[in-house]
Task: inverse folding
């Protein structure tokens, strides 16, 4: 197919006429991924994966390399914007029933897991205090796995502690995984085009469609421009807004920070981990907090796809959003009352959403058929 035919097919791509701006976050995620890959490639040229030189190489990039501070901060801030977009994208999918496109939803869940792994590996690379100790806490969770835990941890570390081989492995994984994400994103988009997008009303979009361009391409352009504008505002006025002060000190295994915590986009899972007293139970809860997203397509019981006409389920959804924010907040606090109790209650409510929703669907079905 020639370039002209491809451009024509893109322009005339039929999409639902009532799709709102909430559907633009998919294209924003693609833009975020391209931004991260481009800035990451620049940083990789100057980065040294060695525990004695990693921190110094980051300082060299930000102080000595021309425009290096822009690239480094864009990469760090871009990661946060990536997660803002993907969490919004997932919330929209839950609210409007997009998860009923099962293959699209499953591929998206896999992409989320790979993205979180990529971000975790990247967070360790600066070899600051919080990077080192967050990696120590999270990788030690593997030891909770019966029989294989110690072996897996030793393999991941490349030894019996987090050291030079660990950093080399994390750098290699952080560099390779984005290209795997690109491949999976292509599959995700192909599946989406095969099955078609959902819409706010949850009706069949095939009955009324319009060309992608200009009706939706203009929305994508506006949202992308807004995101880039916000990125440069943060970059100019508060470049270290998402950085932990502890990470501006080189990693020291002999000094433990008072409060060990990962980046904000991991805090909901970290809060759920801390809310379970048992190490194995906490590890399972941590994994389940993300993997549980494969459940909604299997447990959808309502006759209606979208929550827009389901007030009971809407209340449940907004409770989930409040719970997510609460867990994120408590994860920044010490593990002591009342924060530990609030975190435990919020964690129970988080998992309860995926159990209550099918029951609410049955209830709403009975009410609407009466």
Result:
């Amino acid at each position: 197919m020639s370039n002209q035919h491809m451009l024509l097919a893109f322009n005339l791509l039929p999409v639902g006429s009532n799709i709102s701006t909430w559907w633009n976050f998919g294209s924003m995620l693609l833009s975020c991924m391209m931004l991260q890959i481009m800035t990451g490639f620049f940083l990789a040229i100057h980065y040294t994966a060695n525990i004695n030189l990693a921190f110094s190489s980051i300082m060299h990039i930000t102080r000595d390399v021309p425009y290096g501070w822009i690239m480094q901060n864009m990469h760090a801030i871009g990661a946060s914007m990536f997660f803002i977009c993907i969490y919004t994208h997932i919330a929209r999918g839950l609210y409007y029933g997009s998860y009923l496109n099962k293959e699209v939803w499953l591929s998206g869940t896999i992409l989320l897991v790979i993205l979180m792994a990529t971000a975790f590996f990247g967070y360790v690379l600066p070899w600051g205090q919080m990077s080192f100790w967050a990696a120590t806490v999270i990788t030690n969770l593997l030891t909770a796995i019966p029989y294989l835990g110690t072996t897996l941890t030793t393999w991941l570390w490349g030894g019996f502690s987090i050291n030079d081989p660990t950093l080399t492995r994390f750098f290699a994984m952080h560099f390779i995984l984005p290209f795997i994400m690109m491949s999976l994103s292509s599959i995700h988009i192909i599946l989406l085009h095969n099955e078609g997008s959902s819409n706010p009303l949850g009706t069949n979009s095939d009955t009324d469609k319009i060309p992608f361009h200009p009706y939706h391409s203009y929305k994508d352009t506006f949202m992308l421009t807004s995101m880039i504008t916000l990125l440069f505002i943060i970059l100019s006025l508060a470049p270290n807004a998402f950085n932990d002060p502890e990470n501006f000190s080189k990693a020291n295994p002999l000094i433990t920070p008072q409060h060990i915590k990962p980046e904000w986009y991991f805090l909901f899972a970290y809060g759920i981990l801390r809310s379970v007293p048992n190490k194995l139970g906490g590890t399972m809860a941590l994994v389940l907090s993300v993997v549980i997203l494969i459940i909604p397509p299997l447990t959808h019981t309502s006759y209606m796809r979208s929550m827009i006409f389901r007030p009971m389920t809407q209340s449940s959804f907004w409770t989930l959003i409040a719970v997510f924010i609460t867990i994120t907040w408590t994860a920044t606090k010490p593990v002591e009352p009342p924060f530990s109790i609030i975190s435990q209650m919020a964690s129970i409510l988080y998992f309860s959403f995926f159990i209550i929703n099918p029951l609410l669907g049955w209830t709403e079905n009975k009410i609407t058929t009466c």
Observations:
- The chain has two domains: 13-253, 261-369.
- The mean pLDDT is 89.
- The first strand starts at residue 14 and ends at 16.
- The beta strands are 14-16, 209-211.
